[in-house]
Each structure stands twice: as C-alpha cells, then as structure tokens.
C-alpha cells in the first residue's frame, strides 16, 4: 500500500511537462489559441477526476442558466400577453359604455358617427384596432376602411349573451389578442358589440426589449459559476494528487482484494522475494510465523516446492502443493505489468475444505430448492386435505421415503384444534404402497410416550435417529411397531403443525432406503417445511370455518318452508354459487285481506358479509311488509335502510359497506286479481299467460338500493287466473359468456317449453342451464295466480248513521249462517259493530264493510279518513276506549291498511 501510494504521488507532478503539453504551449505561443494559466491547465484535463468534475459542473451551470433565461423569456411574454388582454378589454368596455354609443348604433349611418371616435380611442389607447359592429358581427368601424361592412372574425356568442370575452386568434390583420364587449340599451338588451385588440407582433415587443438584459445577466451568472467551479476543481486536484479515475479504481481494487479475500490466503512479494504482506488465512494455511513480513521467502519455514514457487515469481495457476495434511491450490501473478512495481501476488486455497464446502453447498442448494417448491406448491387451494397431500407429495422421495400428516378432527371441520381429541390421518405418501403405517382415514390418539405424543406435548420437533431404540415408541401399537421395523423403516422425524399458538396436528417423516439416519440439519429443514405447510393448512381451516358459518347463516336466513295461503301456488329453487355463498334471497309473505307479497333480492358479493347483509334486508322486508305499504314505498324505506347501513359501515374501518343490492317486491290480491310490482335495480319479472305465451313485464327500473335520490314506481298488472309470475335473480340470466339480453331470451325459450305447474316451470328453467355450476347464486320463484271465488266475498255499503250498525250486524249474521260459520256470529258481529261505530264517529264517508272467507274469516271496514285508531286501556270513568281492546281480544290479528282514498281496519279470526 505504501509503495503504491508513493508511486502515484511521484508520477503525478510529471504529467504537465509531457510532450503533448509542450506542443499545446507552443500552439498557444504562436497565437493560434489563448494559453490557459498554468494552474488551470491540470483542471481542464479530462483525464483527471478534477477535470471531469469541472466540466460536469460547467455543463450543469450552463443548463441551469439556459433554463432560467428561457423561463424569464416565457414569463415576460406571458405578462405581456396578459397586459394586452387587459388593455384590449378596458378599451372595448370604455367605448361600449360611452355616452351616445346606443344612439349612434341606431342612426341611419353608424359608420359616419362611430369611425372617428373609434380611431381616436385606438390611437390614444395604443391598440391596433377598435371595431364597432352590430349583433350579427358586421363591422361599422375598422382602421382599414375596406374591412368596414364585412364579417367580424372572432367569438361573439358570449358577448351576445351579455358577457365580455377575451381571446387569442388569427384575424384579418394577423395573430392578435382581442376583447369583445356587448353594448346594452336601457332595457339591458344587447344592441351592438365593441371589439378592441392588439397584434401579437406588438405584444412581443416587450420581450425583445428585455431580452438583452436577461441574456447579459445569464452570461454573468455563467462566468461567475465557471470561476467558482475552477476554484473547487483546483482544490480537488490537490487532494487527489492528479490521479485519474482508473488509477484510483486500481488502487482500491488492490486494497479490497487484500482485505476482503478472507477465505483465501493472499501473499504479496517484492521483486527480491521479500514477503511484504500475508493475510490471516495465508498464515493459517502455510503455518507462517507472526514476524514473517519483511523476511525473505526462502528464510520462512515453508515446504521447498512452495518456497521455490513463491521466490521465483513465475506465473502459476491452481498449482497443487502439499503442506502438512492439506492440499493447497496456489495461483501466482506478477505485479510489474503495465509499469507496476516489481514483485508478485500469490493466492492460496485449501482444496480439501473446498471439496467439503462444495458438497455442503450442493446440499444447501437442494434444500433451498425444496423450500422454494414448498412456497409455490403448498397451499394452492383452500382445501385442508389437499394442502396436506401437497406436503407429502413434495417431500417424497426428495427428503423422506414415507410421510404422514395427522390432523385433529376439529381442524378438518374448520374449528379450533382440540389437543385432547383424536387425530385423523389426513394424508400419506411413500415410495411404496405396502408400508405397514396407519392408512389414510385412521383415527388415532397418540400416547404420550410415542415420538408423536412427545412432539405434540412439547410443541417442538423431535428426531429419532434409530427408531428401534426410541423410548416408548412401541407402546402406541406393539404389533404394528414391530411390522414397521421389519419393513426397514429405521429413522423418524416428527414435527408439530403449529400456526401461531394453535397446534393443528403432527407430521411424521420416515426413512427406510437411505442407510444414514436423520440428523439435526435435516430436522431443521423438516421444521421449515412443516412451518410453511402449517400456515397454508391454517388458512384453509379458517376458510372452511368461514364458509361453514356463511352456509349456516345463509340457510338459517332463507325460508325453510312457505307459509300457508290460498292466493298463489308457489314453487321455488335456490342454487348456491360454485365458490362460497352469496346474498341472493326470496320470500313469500301473507298480507292482510288474503293478499300475498312476493320478494326476490340480491346482495352483490359472496361470503359471510353478503349472507349477513342479506339477512338484515330480509328481516327489514318482513317488518316493512307488516305495515301494508305499497311496493314503491316499501322499496323507498329499504333504500334508506341500506343507505344507513353503508354510512355505519363506512365509519367502521373494519367493516365493508354494501357494494350493491337489488330487490323486486310484488303484491297479489286474489279478490281484485291485480298485482302491484316495483323493482330496485332488479331484472324484470316474467309472466306466463294461461295460453303459454311469455312476456317480460315492463316494470319501471328503479336504482339499486342505497343510491337514494330517485323515487321508485309501481306497475299494476291484472293477470288472468292461472297465469304464472316468474321472479328470479340475475345469476339466472347473466353470464361472462353473454350479456343479459341473451340470457333473457334463453329464459323466455325455457319458460315457453315449461309445463303448467310451478314445479314443472322451475324444473324446465334449471334444466335449460349449462351443467357447469353457476358462478353466481340463483334464486327462482314461480307463483301461479288464483282468484277468490265470488261466493266467498261479502260486501255492504254502510250509511254514516248509528242506526246502520244494527243492519250490518243482521247482514253479517245471515252471511255467516250461509257459510256455516254460526259459531263465529257473536265475535264477528261484535268486531264489526265496534269497527263500524268507530268509522261512523271518527272516520269519513263513504263507509263499506267486506267479509272474506279464506283460510281465515277476514272482516274489513273501509272509510275515507286517514286517521289511524290506537289501542289503549280505558279507565273506570271513561265512556269509550274499549272497542279496539275488544277487537284485539276476539281477533287473531288486526291492523290498519292505508289506501289512496282512506284506510281499512281489518281483523282475522281462525275458522272452526
């Protein structure tokens, strides 16, 4: 190191006096070029680090100065343009608002009156033109008189609307900046336009005036920066001693080679054979004494052959020398090449250790490959059994001859592992199939003395190099243990499957073909492989648990059976998606007056969140339907609910909002045989007429739930008795392979071929689909309409007088006798008399009574008031307040239904 540095210092001062430099000085002396000062010539040399830094510094400063000049020029030009826009707008507004301008525009010859004023203003304001024109853009004035009477070039629409406009265009006199201002009369009506402008040639004049100053400032900055760079480079020149980049790089390469070649012996020799430097590895391999540096190599205790080689300085490549019990590979090169100092450098390697190291490196490479394959090949699915099989397939036969995976029973079901429970042999792989190990599917409880039991109890891996000597192993199964040893299996590694704090099971690696037993290094590899597999198995367990929870939740939220009702014959189908559970749902809800509500909905997405959201919406529809709301009002309330859910979920960073939900709600009345339908972002229902023709009902499409802002609309149908109403979710008609129009047409064809019953219709629709499982859930609901027979309906108008109550009671008694329901006469007469009395006293006309004989006896009282009665407890001194209390006691259900022209109080009684 000292000699290298000294050589560099000695050579650097001689460079300025080379022949090339002398030649350059002569050329400077004869006047061909200005000779730089002596102190600056080394700085300008591109061969030195200082020269390269100086040139780079000058280039950077030059770029910055040029950029600054360009920026200043652009800024001055921008400011000039803005000034031109402001001046032209001010001149135009001044003339537009000048007195007499409106009268001049209305005069017979506006040019005669306006041309002198316009020219005077143009000259005083130093603009290029001032033009007055009518509302059609015909000029009355112009600096060039031949342009008067011609069409103005520019944008007039904003000015005609009463707003001034400024723009940059190419007009009749060239590129310019102009402003157009409206001329308003006393009523605010635009009667003319005034335009003033300045050409771009005049706008750029300011730039030309300021450009010399800007360039001068930039040049001065460049000169100052260049002088500063020269001073800095001169300082750098002194610090680097005139060394170039290549010389400095070579010096540091020698330095790094000596200091960092720790696994090779490095020896540096002078030209006379004196040892200059030997690193620690060279001392160890050659057995050199501590005072070896500075001594001749032949005086050192070296083998004769090795000493002769080092002292000769000849070139040697991997020349093998025996030193003690080692075989050393010696490489030697001379250092006096390309003018370097005389001497040589020799490196010494222990080939014996290299061979052992090569073997370990190959084994390490194989283990790294196996770990890489484990990261890629284990956990490709979320199936617990398949993940365990992937582990066994990976390690056999690369690591073990047989591998078994035993998981606790609760893990396979997705639950928390139970260490006290039995283990299920989930996967097994081997080089042969006749090994006497427990087969797949065997349930086992490992005893504590067995290797698996001890590994599970301690929670850490365990190696049994000699299985025949393993303590307590035969206690698990004496007969099978003997068979395993007789089969040739002689070594075992057991590793617990641990994911965090959870113990999922145990993995066993068995060896039979390879005679060497498992060692500690292989135990570490097995632990790493099992750790990666444990993460994948735990992920699969969590997915299985979530999937099971979602399926359970979804099945609990969907209707398990349809309610009893007489208005519709109903059949339904529900098909889950190929992966996971979704948010499709349906429901059938009996309403008052023998009516029935049909509802089908869809929540976008799959998984537990979609199922939970579906349950919330289904519960909300149940609650809202009990209010007897029209379909459009019910969807409006449901829309507000989804909006509130989204708001709540957005505030909680751990929750997800409802990304999309649709719903279709229909109410069928068997008395009037009418059906009201409304939908929120849902596909339209299909109607199959009794003759088999199919049509998709034109129901106004409202927005999906949660968007808000738009009302929903209700469509009223009057299907013939025996018609079938088909409600479905988008999974039935939408697919990645085609759009919804194609899906609707395929559904129409399937419905046209279906049988008469709802069950046949469901079967025909599902059979028409592809046999591949759907990517989205499918909910299908088919309802065939039925009407309530006329002999089951009784209806009477009621005058608004108390005496009419007795007549109603008599008519009701006669009708009940006709229906054979005399047992209900007393309760029915009491209910209707109370309801009719309330309608007469507190309601408004007209009043009407209706009785329906369906699965229940339904009594309804219509009146024109929207006031709803409330149930209350009357005190001892109250004269009234007990009527509704009696109705509630006698009826099974009662309630209020609002109509556009009033309300209905209804009550239901169970038929005997």
TrEMBL record:
Membrane association type: Multi-pass membrane protein
Domain PPM-type phosphatase: 565-785
Signal peptide limits: none
Localization per record: Cell membrane
Annotated Polar residues bias: 9-23
Keywords noted in UniProt: ATP-binding, Cell membrane, Hydrolase, Kinase, Membrane, Nucleotide-binding, Phosphoprotein, Transferase, Transmembrane, Transmembrane helix, Two-component regulatory system
Gene3D superfamilies assigned: 3.30.450.40, Histidine kinase-like ATPase, C-terminal domain, PAS domain, PPM-type phosphatase domain
TM spans (from-to): 54-76
Annotated spans, Disordered: 1-34
Domain of life assignment: Bacteria
Ranges for domain PAS: 253-318
Domain GAF: 379-547
SMART domains: GAF (SM00065), PAS (SM00091), PP2C_SIG (SM00331)
Protein name: SpoIIE family protein phosphatase
Phylogenetic classification of the source organism: Bacteria, Bacillati, Actinomycetota, Actinomycetes, Kitasatosporales
């Amino acid at each position: 190191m000292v000699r290298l540095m000294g050589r560099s210092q000695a050579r650097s001062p001689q460079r300025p006096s080379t022949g090339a430099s002398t030649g350059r000085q002569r050329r400077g002396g004869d006047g061909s070029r200005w000779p730089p000062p002596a102190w600056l010539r080394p700085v300008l040399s591109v061969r030195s680090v200082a020269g390269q830094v100086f040139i780079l510094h000058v280039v950077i400063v030059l770029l910055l100065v040029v950029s600054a000049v360009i920026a200043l020029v652009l800024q001055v030009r921008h400011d000039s343009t803005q000034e031109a826009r402001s001046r032209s707008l001010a001149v135009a507004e001044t003339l537009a608002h000048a007195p007499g301008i409106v009268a001049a525009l209305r005069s017979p010859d506006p040019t005669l009156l306006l041309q002198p004023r316009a020219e005077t203003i143009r000259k005083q304001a130093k603009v290029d033109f001032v033009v007055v024109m009518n509302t059609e853009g015909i000029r009355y004035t112009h600096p060039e008189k031949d342009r008067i009477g011609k069409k103005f070039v520019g944008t007039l629409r904003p000015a005609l609307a009463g707003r001034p406009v400024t723009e940059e265009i190419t007009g009749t006199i060239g590129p310019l900046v102009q402003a157009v201002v409206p001329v308003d009369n006393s009523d605010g009506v635009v009667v003319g336009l005034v335009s003033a402008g300045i050409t771009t040639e005049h706008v750029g004049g300011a730039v030309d005036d300021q450009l010399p100053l800007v360039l001068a400032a930039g040049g001065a900055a460049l000169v100052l920066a260049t002088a500063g760079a020269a001073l800095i480079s001169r300082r750098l020149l002194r610090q680097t001693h005139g060394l170039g980049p290549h010389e400095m790089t070579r010096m540091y390469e020698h330095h790094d080679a000596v200091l960092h070649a720790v696994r090779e012996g490095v020896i540096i020799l002078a030209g006379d054979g004196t040892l200059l430097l030997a690193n620690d590895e060279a001392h160890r391999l050659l057995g050199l004494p501590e005072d070896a540096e500075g001594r001749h190599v032949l005086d050192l205790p070296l083998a004769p052959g090795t000493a002769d080689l080092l002292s000769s300085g000849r070139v040697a490549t991997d020349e093998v020398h025996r030193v003690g019990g080692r075989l050393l590979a010696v490489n030697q090169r001379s250092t006096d090449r390309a003018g370097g100092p005389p001497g040589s450098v020799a490196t010494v390697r222990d080939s014996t250790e290299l061979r052992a190291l090569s073997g370990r490196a190959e084994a390490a490479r194989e283990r790294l490959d196996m770990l890489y394959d484990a990261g890629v090949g284990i956990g490709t699915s979320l199936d617990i059994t398949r993940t365990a099989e992937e582990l066994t397939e990976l390690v056999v036969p690369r690591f073990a001859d047989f591998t078994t995976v035993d998981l606790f029973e609760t893990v396979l079901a997705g639950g928390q592992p139970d260490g006290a429970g039995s283990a299920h042999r989930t996967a097994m792989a081997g080089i042969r199939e006749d090994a006497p190990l427990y087969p797949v599917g065997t349930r086992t409880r490992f005893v504590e003395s067995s290797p698996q039991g001890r590994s599970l109890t301690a929670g850490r891996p365990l190696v049994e190099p000699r299985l025949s000597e393993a303590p307590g192993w035969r206690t698990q199964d004496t007969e099978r243990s003997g068979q395993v040893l007789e089969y040739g299996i002689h070594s075992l590694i057991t590793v617990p499957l641990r994911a965090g704090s959870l113990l999922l099971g145990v993995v066993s690696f068995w060896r039979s073909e390879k005679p060497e037993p498992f060692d500690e290094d292989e135990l570490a590899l097995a632990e790493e492989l099992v750790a990666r597999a444990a993460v994948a198995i735990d992920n699969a367990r969590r997915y299985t648990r979530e999937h099971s929870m979602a399926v359970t939740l979804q099945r609990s939220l969907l209707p398990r059976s349809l309610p009893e009702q007489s208005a519709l014959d109903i059949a339904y189908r529900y098909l889950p998606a190929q992966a996971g559970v979704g948010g499709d749902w349906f429901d059938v809800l009996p309403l008052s007056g023998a009516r029935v509500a049909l509802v089908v909905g869809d929540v976008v997405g799959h998984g537990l969140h979609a199922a939970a959201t579906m349950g919330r919406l289904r519960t909300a529809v149940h609650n809202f339907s009990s209010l007897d709301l029209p379909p459009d009002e019910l969807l409006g309330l449901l829309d507000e609910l989804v909006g509130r859910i989204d708001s709540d979920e957005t505030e909680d960073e751990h929750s997800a909002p409802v990304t999309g939900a649709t719903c279709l709600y229909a109410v069928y009345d068997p008395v009037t045989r009418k059906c009201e339908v409304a939908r929120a972002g849902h596909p339209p229902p299909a109607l199959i007429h009794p003759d088999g023709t199919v049509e998709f009902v034109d129901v106004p499409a409202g927005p999906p739930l949660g968007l808000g802002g738009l009302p929903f609309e209700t469509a009223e149908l009057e299907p013939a008795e025996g018609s079938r109403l088909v409600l479905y979710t988008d999974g039935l008609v939408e697919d990645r392979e085609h759009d919804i129009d194609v899906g609707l047409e395929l559904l129409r064809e399937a419905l046209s071929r279906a049988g008469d019953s709802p069950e046949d219709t469901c079967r025909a629709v599902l059979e028409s689909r592809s046999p591949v499982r759907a990517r989205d859930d499918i909910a299908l609901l088919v309802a065939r309409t039925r009407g309530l027979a006329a002999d089951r309906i009784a209806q009477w108008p009621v005058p608004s007088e108390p005496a009419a109550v007795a007549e109603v009671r008599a008519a009701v008694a006669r009708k009940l006798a006709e229906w054979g329901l005399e047992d209900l006469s007393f309760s029915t007469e009491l209910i209707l008399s109370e309801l009719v009395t309330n309608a007469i006293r507190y309601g408004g006309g007209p009043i009407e009574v209706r009785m329906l004989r369906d699965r229940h006896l339904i009594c309804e009282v219509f009146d024109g008031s929207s006031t709803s009665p409330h149930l209350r407890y009357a005190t001892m001194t109250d004269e009234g307040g007990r009527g509704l209390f009696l109705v509630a006691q006698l009826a099974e259900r009662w309630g209020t239904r609002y109509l556009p022209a009033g309300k209905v109080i209804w009550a239901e009684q169970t038929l005997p």
